[in-house]
Each structure stands twice: as structure tokens, then as C-alpha cells.
Design a protein that fits this description.
Layout (H helix, E strand, L loop, with lengths): L5 E8 L1 H5 L3 H9 L4 E8 L3 H7 L4 H17 L4 H8 L4 H16 L4 E9 L1 H9 L12 H5 L4 H6 L8 E3 L3 H12 L16
Antiparallel strand pairs: 1-3, 1-4, 2-3
Bound molecules: guanosine-5'-diphosphate (GDP) and magnesium ion.
Length: about 200
């Protein structure tokens, strides 16, 4: 039977995930939840590739800046501190700085990109990966089990939050990212998993 919510999502093991030897562990966690790996590849991304992977719309960049400010406020710091650390308190400018850190982080070592397929694959994979900030991620998620990083430590070090893996947040993001990373002559396979795709 064709499942109405059978979908594909995009995952990348980030450089810290590869360098901590977690590629197998991360893939295992998807497979044990009945999700199927249908494309898989290790690669070293260029700055340009990463620059085009993350949205360039002001809205998305500003959201990164807003997230940064809300972390500051949570820890009793404010826009003045933002101005000190980022050279600007304009949230779009702050977002641009964080986006730049992301490009440096994701080009610093090889990554593993994959397409994961299954029922509710987008939400399932996000649940397994956990929320953005590892120190807040529940035990049992990839980010919660293998990292304790936070925006506060990352911003002080002027780097992106090291959180082991990227996973698409919505079906629209997944469609766009799969096309972007696997659209050009890279293979996505079709096969049946025993006991699941009967
Ligand atoms: P994700 O979908 O959970 O990866 O999170 P986002 O799409 O919101 O952000 C993209 C990436 O930017 C995250 O995975 C982090 O590596 C990094 N990041 C997000 N927010 C912050 C922040 O406030 N400070 C820093 N330094 N990095 C951040
Ligand atoms: Mg995201």
C-alpha cells in the first residue's frame, strides 16, 4: 500500500559528527526507526556550495539574528552586548555574521550527505536529531546524546553551534535540499526493506 505520508528528507552529518566518528551511529538511529537510507555520499563542500545551501532571504537571515538575541536575553545579556560581540545590533547584520560562521564550519572537514525515506520522514528525522541547541536537546536524541554545545559558547568563540547533523525542517526545505544536493546525476535508489515495505 502506498503511504500518504511516505516522504524523503535530507540529512548531512556535519564536520564535528564525522570527526567524532559518529557517521555509523547517526545512520543506525534512522534505520532502527524504520527509515530507509536511499542515497549516501561523503564529500568536502566548497564555500559556494554551502552559501547556496542555506536560504539567502532576509527573513531567514534575520531569524538567525533573532535567535541569537533571544539566547543573549535568556542569559541576562542584551543588545549592547550584541553590539560589542558582533559590531552591530541590527539583527540582519548579526544573522549575516552567524551565516558566515556556518559556511566556515561546514567547509572545515568532510561531511556525509544522505536522503532518508519513510513515513513522516521529515518530522521523524528532526525528532531523532533533536533541536538546534545540543545543551537543550533531550537525552536520546543525536544532538542531546553527543554534544553539549550552546549559542553562548559558540558566539564567544565566533563560530557556529556544533550540533553534529543538519536535517531539513519542512517538506518544502527537504524537496529543495534534495534537488540541490542530489539533483545533478547523483543517485537516489529505490528498494524494499524486509518487514517494512511489504
Ligand atoms: P537547525 O535547522 O536545527 O540546524 O537550525 P537553524 O536552521 O536555525 O540554524 C542553522 C545552524 O546555524 C544551526 O544548526 C547551528 O549550527 C547554527 N546556529 C543557529 N543559531 C545559532 C546561534 O544563535 N549562534 C551560533 N553561533 N550558531 C547558530
Ligand atoms: Mg535549519
Amino acid at each position: 500500500m502506498i503511504q500518504p505520508k511516505e516522504e524523503k528528507t535530507f540529512v548531512m552529518v556535519k564536520p564535528d559528527g564525522v570527526q567524532k566518528g559518529l557517521v555509523g551511529e547517526i545512520i543506525k538511529r534512522f534505520e532502527q526507526r524504520d527509515l530507509k537510507i536511499v542515497a549516501l555520499d561523503m564529500f568536502l563542500a566548497t564555500r559556494e556550495e554551502i552559501d547556496n545551501h542555506y536560504p539567502k532571504e532576509e527573513k531567514w537571515i534575520r531569524r538567525l539574528g533573532e535567535k541569537t538575541l533571544s539566547t543573549y536575553e535568556k542569559y541576562g545579556r542584551d543588545v549592547t552586548d550584541l553590539q560589542k560581540d558582533f559590531g552591530s545590533s541590527d539583527l540582519l547584520e548579526v544573522g549575516k555574521v552567524v551565516r558566515g560562521w556556518l559556511v566556515s564550519y561546514l567547509t572545515s572537514a568532510p561531511m556525509v550527505r544522505m536522503v532518508v525515506q519513510g513515513v513522516h520522514a521529515v518530522d521523524m528525522v528532526r525528532k531523532i536529531v533533536g533541536p538546534t541547541m545540543p545543551y537543550l536537546a533531550e537525552i536520546g536524541t543525536i544532538r542531546g546524546d553527543y554534544s553539549a554545545d550552546s549559542a553562548i559558547s559558540a558566539n564567544v568563540d565566533k563560530r557556529a553551534v556544533f550540533n553534529l547533523a543538519h536535517a531539513s525542517e519542512t517538506t518544502e526545505e527537504a524537496t529543495h535540499e534534495i534537488e540541490y544536493w542530489f539533483g545533478d546525476k547523483k543517485t537516489i535508489y529505490t528498494y524494499k526493506r524486509f518487514g517494512i515495505d511489504e
